[in-house]
Amino acid sequence: MDFALTREQVAFRDAVRSFCAEHVTDELRRITGTFGDEHHPAFYAKLAERGWIGMQWPRAYGGQGKSHTEMVLFYEEMALAGAPLGRYNGSVVFVGSSIIEFGSEEQKKKYLPRIANGELTFCWCLSEPNAGSDSASLRTMAREDDEHFVVNGQKVFISGAHVADYAMVAVRTNPTAPKREGISLILLDMSSAGITVNPIWTIGGWRVNEVFFENVRVPKEQLLGEKDKGWSNLLKTLNFERSGISTVGNLMRFYADEYIGMMRTVTVHVKDLSARGEEAAPAYDAVQQTSLKHISTLKKLEARPATKEAKASLAQAIDAGQKAHDAASQAIAKSLGR
Ligand SMILES: Cc1cc2nc3c(=O)[nH]c(=O)nc-3n(C[C@H](O)[C@H](O)[C@H](O)COP(=O)(O)OP(=O)(O)OC[C@H]3O[C@@H](n4cnc5c(N)ncnc54)[C@H](O)[C@@H]3O)c2cc1C
């Protein structure tokens, strides 16, 4: 199996790394940390200037035709630097990828270039108070009224709803069909009349939102994919997030590098720690191997990354990261005599 990155991919990774060194400053992290928004408009504009928003899309839609491997490299570097990518995730990973996969040609031309140039951001409205893990129980209704859908209902835990220009919303368009057969996806302008957004603060300081829709009128051309057939599309949307472009780099580097680094620092103070560090080394190696294997799997799947194989590969990568974390923690604890 070929694990090596190409020369172009290494150059790209280095470019992202230098960008982060210059632009992901302590001040930026302080601001986004304080407001829990995971979004910073000026930083987002810089990503757009570089052409990195939607860079995997065809040039005709404002992208650069980059590969999934490059997306992974981008995410690794951004995650390692702690860059605020909240709106990027909503706009590119969830919604943009969905528009590419099942949007009409008109919708692709209308939205993707404006997402890519940073003009439009999206949030993804799926979860409801009684439809979390069991998303198919969602009750937000979209009733047809001539050339419009009229949307009523409530979503909860929605990242970025307070800043996004548009939302992709999972709605029920057929209340009498079996629950997986009456769901549709619609693109909805967040400045429409009848929308209320309230904050919910997570224990980790991240802002999510509850969103209420009261008789919100949405033109029918905003339907994304086929009416009542949204369930299978929605599962693909969820797979875009799981297919490895979220925080693999973060996990790898945090679990491996940070803990190994911590052990090195502590060695100065504690006798025999370097020997303990050796104990964690196999787990560290396992993380690196799994990370490379994951990237290689993604390379093979470039055309269709949202698959079960990519999901399984990501799960293995996360599992290896967790094992390294545990091994490193135990090694440190042993060295400290605990
Ligand atoms: C920071 C953050 C950001 C989010 N952003 C978004 C967003 O942008 N858009 C969006 O739509 N949603 C978002 N969510 C919502 C997230 O997707 C939901 O939290 C998730 O779907 C789980 O739903 P729930 O919280 O209602 O938990 P529940 O479904 O109520 O689950 C609670 C617990 O019960 C367990 N459980 C559930 N069902 C079963 C079962 N059948 N058997 C055994 N155990 C079970 C679960 O594993 C979990 O531990 C966000 C959540 C968080 C925390």
Give me the CATH fold name of the largest domain: Butyryl-Coa Dehydrogenase, subunit A, domain 1
Task: Point out poorly predicted stretches.
Answer: 266-276
The total count of helices amounts to 10
Percent of residues in helical segments? Answer: 40-55%
CATH architecture of the largest domain: Orthogonal Bundle
Give a brief rundown of this model.
The protein is of the alpha+beta class. It is 50% helix and 16% strand.
Textual characterization of the structure:
With 338 residues, this protein is an alpha+beta fold. The chain has 3 domains: 7-121, Butyryl-Coa Dehydrogenase, subunit A, domain 1 (Orthogonal Bundle), CATH 1.10.540.10; 123-237, Butyryl-CoA Dehydrogenase, subunit A, domain 2 (Beta Barrel); 243-335. The protein has 10 helices and 8 strands. The strands form 2 sheets. It has a 4-stranded mixed sheet, covered by helices on one side. A 4-stranded antiparallel sheet has the order 2-3-7-6, with no helix packed on it. It is globular, with a radius of gyration of 22 Å. Mean pLDDT is 82; it is low at 266-276. The structure holds flavin-adenine dinucleotide (FAD). Flavin-adenine dinucleotide is lined by residues 123-127, 132-133, 157-159, 202, 206, 208.
